[in-house]
Amino acid sequence: MEWMVVAEGLRFPEGPVQLPDGDIAVVEIEAGIISRIDAAGSRTVMAKPGGGPNGLAMGPDGKLYCCNNGGFTWIEHGGRLIPRVQPDDYSGGRIERIDLRTGEVELLYRSGDFGCRLNGPNDIVFDREGGFWFSDYGKTRDRDRDRGAILYARADGSDLREVVFPVDNPNGIGLSPDGRTLYVAETFTCRLTAYDVVEPGKIAEKGPLGMSGTPLYRPAGWKFFDSLGVEACGNICVATIGEPGITVISPTGSEVEFVPCADEYTTNICWGGADLMDAYVTQSATGRLIKGRWPRPGLALAY
Description:
Blueprint: E1 4-7, E2 13-18, E3 24-28, E4 33-37, E5 43-47, E6 53-58, E7 64-68, E8 74-77, E9 80-83, E10 94-98, E11 105-110, E12 121-126, E13 131-136, E14 148-154, E15 160-167, E16 170-175, E17 181-186, E18 191-199, E19 202-203, E20 214-217, E21 223-230, E22 236-242, E23 245-249, E24 255-260, E25 266-272, E26 278-283, E27 288-293
Antiparallel strand pairs: 1-27, 2-3, 3-4, 4-5, 6-7, 7-10, 8-9, 10-11, 12-13, 13-14, 14-15, 16-17, 17-18, 18-19, 18-20, 21-22, 22-23, 23-24, 25-26, 26-27
C-alpha cells in the first residue's frame, strides 16, 4: 500500500476524525492543541484545551468531543517525540466539548463527577443513541501505573458511569456496524477484547467469575496496540506500535491482513472522502498525518 504525507511537523498527532467539511481534525498531544488539516495539508489551530488532548469524536450537536489525558512528560531523540510519564503539572483527566466555529473549550466531565475517577481518558466512540463510550488508560509514573477502565457518558452532561473496571491499559475503542459489540484494544497486553452491548451504557457479563468481554485476538512479536477504527464490513483496524502498522482483524478474531507503516508510533486511523476509502493514519513520533487508499470503506460513524 502506498502512503502519502498530508501534513508534518505535528507534535505527536492522534485522534484523527473527518469534519463535516471534509477537513481532518487531529490532536497534538504534546502541544495541548487540536488542529484542522485541509486537503492541501495546511494546518490551523482549532482549539487549545491544554493538558493532553487524545481521542476525538463528532457528537450529535455538531461539536467535537475530546478525551483529555491530563498530559505527559516527553523525550525527543533521533527525530522522534516520545511520551513518558505523568508530569508534575498533570492537570487531571477530563472530557471536553469543542465548538468548531469558535474553538471554545467546554469542560463536560471531570474526575469525581458521578463518583467516577478520570485518570487518563484516551479514546472515544459515539453510539446512535447519542451517548459515548470511552477508555480511560490511566496514568503511568516512574514506578507504578493506574489500572484502567471503560466508561459511558451522555453528551448532554447528564450521566457518567464506569462500566468495566479494572482493565489493563485500555486504549482504542470502537463499535461494530450494528452497535451491538464494543471493541477495546489494550496496549501492553496487546489484546483486542469484544464486549456484548445489551443497551446503551450496559454490557453483558460472561465468562468465568462473572467477567465481561471475550478476548478476540492477540498477535505475536514486539507489537503493542493503540487506537482503532472499524470498517463498514465489520473488520477492526488496530493501530500497532513497535512493529508498526495497522492490524486488520475480522469480527471472528482472525487476522485479515497487516498493513505496515514507517513510524514506530503508528497510533490511529480514520476514513474520509466521499466513499470513505481514504485512510488517514497518525504517525505520532515523527509528527505526520499520512493518507492512502484503503482496500475497503471505513464505517460511517454515528455523527
